[in-house]
Amino acid sequence: MSLLVPVMVRGINNLSDARYCAGMGADSLTFRLDPSFADYLTPQAVQELSGWVAGVQLIGEFDTLPVAEINALVQQCGLHAVLLHRRRTAEELAQLTVPALKLTPWVQDMMPEDVELRFREQAPHYLGFVLATPPSPLPNATELLRLTEQARTYPVWLGAGFAPDTLRNFVEKVRPAGIVLQGGDEIKPGLRDFDEMEAVFEQLEEE
Predict the structure, then answer these.
(1) What is the DSSP string of 78-145?
(2) Which among 57, 115, 129, 183 could disulfide-bond with 11, CB atoms 3.0 to 4.6 Å apart, if both were Cys?
(3) Where in this chain does the record put each N-(5'phosphoribosyl) anthranilate isomerase (PRAI) domain (predicted)?
């Protein structure tokens, strides 16, 4: 299945999600490996899940874990990149053995010049910026215009919830580096409702 834009699915914690998303053409799957997360996965669980999928980038999500321990998990789990929840120093980022993406919050009422400075200063150190959670209310017309400009200057991944109407129209207008979806929990082992996620993939399918 060929998609208009790369899709990242975060928080994979079961085999149903892993296989479904890979089969639907997702570009990358993330696993929460930092013990500071209440729902973190063990390296063994990630190895087991990733062993059933192919053709996708495996990304580990980390918050407070030291870089040396992140690198050890990268090697143990065969990760292709990491998604960092908090800002690291340039020295720490240089020690990582794989590229890093940065989870970036939308800050309501942040001055445009401050947003631009944030992206410009961090861009040399990160593979991309992940704005997974949209604000409420959604960006107004002026904010959306600035977001579009930023997405065309920097590799910005946006959560599907940023779209005010159809996701396809939003992607074609803003042209983000990718779209971010959130994985879910199985109803019971081997049983998962994919209706909502399927609708998103269908909107992004190339015609």
Answers:
(1) T-SEEEESS---HHHHHH-SS-EEEE----TT--HHHHHHHHHHHGGG-SEEEE-S--SSPP-HHHHH
(2) 183
(3) 11-202
- 194 close to 20: Cβ distance less than 8 angstroms: yes
Q: Do 60 and 84 contact (CB within 8 A), yes or no?
A: no
Does the reported pTM lie above 0.90?
Answer: yes
pLDDT tens for 119-159 read 999 999 999 999 999 999 999 999 999 999 999 999 999 99
Task: Go through the domains of the chain in sequence order and give each one's CATH number.
Answer: 7-204 (3.20.20.70)
Q: How far is the first Cα of the chain from the last one, in angstroms, to the nearest whole number? A: 10
Coil, strand, or helix at residue 192?
Answer: coil
